[in-house]
Amino acid sequence: MALQGHVKQILALDFCPVSSVKVATGGDDNTVRLWDLRKRKSYYTFPAHPRMVSSVKYSECGDFLFSSSYDKTSKVWNLRNHTVVKTLAGHDEKVMCVDVEASGGHIVTASYDRTFKLWAPGSFR
């Protein structure tokens, strides 16, 4: 099965931890897409960042999605209403990856500026 929807390269993907048929992708087209593998199509597209999306990561509960970008930020998305909960700014260079502690605790981002940052759990709740 090959799914198409991004208009440029796909650079990131993550399976939803609570639904094995949902996948999030991010790409060089500055978007994050949510996919339903059963229906074999994208069901939502976030105009996520002004520059390419380098990483995506679901929260353990599947209610939030995190994205990182070459725009030097990461974003926290509420998947229930498809809105940005928080923009995490503070890196001096492009943010290459984002991850979240399994318990829903700290968010961590890593950047070309040779730093990684820990963001407090309250950053997105």
Structural overview:
The chain has strands at 10-15, 22-27, 32-36, 41-46, 53-58, 64-69, 73-78, 83-89, 95-100, 107-111, 116-119. It is an all-beta fold and 125 residues long. A 4-stranded antiparallel β-sheet has the order 1-2-3-4, with no helix packed on it. A 4-stranded antiparallel β-sheet has the order 5-6-7-8, with no helix packed on it. The chain has a 3-stranded antiparallel β-sheet with strand order 9-10-11, with no helix packed on it. The N and C termini lie far apart (36 Å). The relative contact order is 0.15.
Helix-strand blueprint:
Elements: E1 10-15, E2 22-27, E3 32-36, E4 41-46, E5 53-58, E6 64-69, E7 73-78, E8 83-89, E9 95-100, E10 107-111, E11 116-119
Antiparallel strand pairs: 1-2, 2-3, 3-4, 5-6, 6-7, 7-8, 9-10, 10-11
Features:
single chain; 125 residues; mainly beta; four-stranded antiparallel beta sheet; 0% helix; 50% strand; globular
Short description:
The protein is an all-beta fold.
Number of strands: 11
Pick out the low-confidence regions: none
Number of helices: 0
The rounded distance between the terminal residues' Cα atoms is 36 Å
What order do the strands of the largest sheet run in, or round the barrel if closed? 1-2-3-4
Assess the beta-strand content as a share of residues: over 45%
SSE order = EEEEEEEEEEE
The helix-and-strand class reads mainly beta
Q: Compute the CA-based radius of gyration.
A: 14 Å
Largest sheet: 4 strands, antiparallel
> Taking all residues together, what is the mean pLDDT?
91
- Which term fits the overall shape? globular
- Proportion of residues in helical segments: under 10%
